[in-house]
Amino acid sequence: MIKTLINCLLIIATSFLPNLAAADWELVKESHNVKLFRSAAEADQFTSRLEAEVNTPLQSLIDTIEDPDACSKWLFRCQTAHRISETDDAHLYTYYVRDYPFPLKDRHGVLEITKSYQENGEFVMNMRLQQDMTPEESTLIVPDIFLAKIRLIKMAAGKTKVYLEHQLNPGGKVPDWIKKSIHEEFPFNSMLGLIESAQSKRLSKIH
Questions:
Q1: Residue 69: exposure state from Cβ atoms within 10 A (0-12, 13-18, ≥19)
Q2: Is residue 123 within 8 Å of residue 10, measured between CB atoms?
Q3: How far is residue 114's CA from residue 89's CA, in Å, rounded to a whole number?
Q4: pTM confidence score
Q5: Which of 106, 77, 98, 69 is nearest to 192 (CA)?
Q6: Exposure string over 113-151, b if 16+ CB within 10 A, otherwise e
Q7: CA 59, CA 205: separation in Å to the nearest integer?
Q8: φ, ψ for residue 5 (rounded to 5)?
Q9: What strands lie across the sheet with 78-88, from one edge to the other?
Q10: What CA dihedral angle connects 200, 110, 22 and 120, to 10 degrees?
Q11: What gap in Å lies between CA 147 and CA 70, rounded to an integer?
């Protein structure tokens, strides 16, 4: 019953994501073994896809991702993040505040997070902004769109393949000189932050 519920949640969460696989991807950056692809088809929505093969065990990455309170340590420009409710181990809600480049105001919101283990051992996490759950009294801005999907696949010799699909529309008018930062630096540095946090967590356990 629990396994069926988790699979249902995954299907629902995945349906929130755009059809990224059909987009026209362009490799725009490759560094630290991370490749960043940008979608020209959805340029206004800041749609990106990243992939990396890292020398980090699958479980170390899962431990990092499954701690919503640690999101601020790897999500780029995230000032704070904390869990506000939890349906079960596979379905929870996290409030976050994200710093944006001047002159933009900071953004905040509530993310619905679903997690699932596939039969082949692959780990999948989906994040979706819930605009109707954000505190109304705040002076911060809620983005129009924030969707993310992380896939972790176990490889040989303790390595892991990491995929991140990311779509963000911060809302409001965004100056052209800031668009590249949101389109490239936000997802790319989030991927690097996730990898580095997982490696640090693993080393702390060893020592």
A1: exposed
A2: no
A3: 9
A4: 0.83
A5: 77
A6: bbbbbeeeeebbbbbbbeeeebeeeeeebbbebbbbbbb
A7: 12
A8: -65, -45
A9: 25-31, 34-39, 47-54, 160-169, 145-154, 123-129, 107-117, 91-98, 78-88
A10: 50
A11: 18
Closest CA to 130 of 114, 146, 107: 146
- Our CA angle for 84, 182, 26, nearest 5°, is 120
Q: Among candidates 175, 200, 206, which has minimal Cα distance to 63?
A: 200
Tens digit of each residue's pLDDT (9 = 90 or more) over 46-89 = 889 999 999 999 999 998 888 867 788 898 999 999 888 878 87
* Cross-strand partners of 167: 47, 147
Answer whether 78's CB lies under 8 Å from 96's CB.
yes
Architecture of the domain made up of 2-206: 2-Layer Sandwich (3.30)
For residues 154 and 64, what is the distance between their CA atoms, to the nearest angstrom? 15
Give dist(CA 163, CA 197) in Å, integer: 16
